[in-house]
Backbone:
């Protein structure tokens, strides 16, 4: 199987590349050449595009060839997703879009961008999506210039509306691992709201889900939530982790009556996905490693 991964050198992408490679795929990674991740296996093909920057709206000629699967890790919004669709229509058997749980209306309820009562959880893939676009516009100084036009709702629509191109959409949870979110700031940072729930996923498990969906025939033209099976509250998570001294951080001014919890039944039943590392043990191991450093 010939698989192209766009943006596969950092964190989730690098782990997904390794999973695909270990499963027997011939993996090509397209990137800027600024990251050399030790997670990446030796022997994969690299296509460097030093001029690539978000949004990526043009691709090197070396990528304009036939692929069984194209996994797009870095499609942020409408323009770059449409560019990928235009490039790989007729060339790719399937385009896999890595999306986010921030597409759901529940995210808008949480951030108070979309007034209304909390949406029921867990959120299935058929739960309502946001109607207010560009959830991070105005946060360019903190997040980067890409935040202005970031909107995975628009990215998903561009893929689903593509004629003659099969697709798969994966909506990710909050991902953590040694390379990113390793301090579990997205857990400890919400100690003041112990009742609140937010689906997480260890990077190894999320990468395994991406690799499975990218290569599974039943994932064609389907949307899947990705994340842990169990859905503990922040208080329940923290009860299993070492306590930290001092006052808990002040959380963002969200409506914490809205949980952000994903139902991952579909990917488990349809594709036979299962975690490769225990989530609770993985969080505890990160804390242990941090304590030794």
Residues:
């Amino acid at each position: 199987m010939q698989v192209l991964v766009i943006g596969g050198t950092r964190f989730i992408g690098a782990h997904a590349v390794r999973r695909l490679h270990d499963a027997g795929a011939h993996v090509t990674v397209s990137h800027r050449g600024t990251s050399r991740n030790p997670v990446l296996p030796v022997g994969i093909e690299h296509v460097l595009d030093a001029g690539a920057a978000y949004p990526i709206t043009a691709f090197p000629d070396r990528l304009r060839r036939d692929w069984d699967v194209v996994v797009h890790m870095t499609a942020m919004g409408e323009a770059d997703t449409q560019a990928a669709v235009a490039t790989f229509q007729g060339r790719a058997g399937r385009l896999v879009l890595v999306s986010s749980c921030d597409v759901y209306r529940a995210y808008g309820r949480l951030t108070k961008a979309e007034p209304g009562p909390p949406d029921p959880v867990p959120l299935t893939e058929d739960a309502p999506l946001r109607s207010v676009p560009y959830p991070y516009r105005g946060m360019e100084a903190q997040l980067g210039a890409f935040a202005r036009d970031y909107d995975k709702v628009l990215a998903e629509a561009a893929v689903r509306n593509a004629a003659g191109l099969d697709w798969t959409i994966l909506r990710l949870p909050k991902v953590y691992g040694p390379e990113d979110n390793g301090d579990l700031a997205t857990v400890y940072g919400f100690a003041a709201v112990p009742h609140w729930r937010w689906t997480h996923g260890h990077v190894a498990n999320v990468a395994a889900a991406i690799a499975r969906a990218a290569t599974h025939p039943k994932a064609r033209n389907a949307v899947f939530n990705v994340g842990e099976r169990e859905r503990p509250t922040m208080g329940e998570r923290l009860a299993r982790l070492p306590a930290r001294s001092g006052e808990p951080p002040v959380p963002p001014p969200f409506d914490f009556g809205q949980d952000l919890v994903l139902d991952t039944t579909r990917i488990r039943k349809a594709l036979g996905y299962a975690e490769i590392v225990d989530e609770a043990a993985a969080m505890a191991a990160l804390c242990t490693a941090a304590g030794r450093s």
Q: What stands out?
A: The chain has a mean pLDDT of 93.
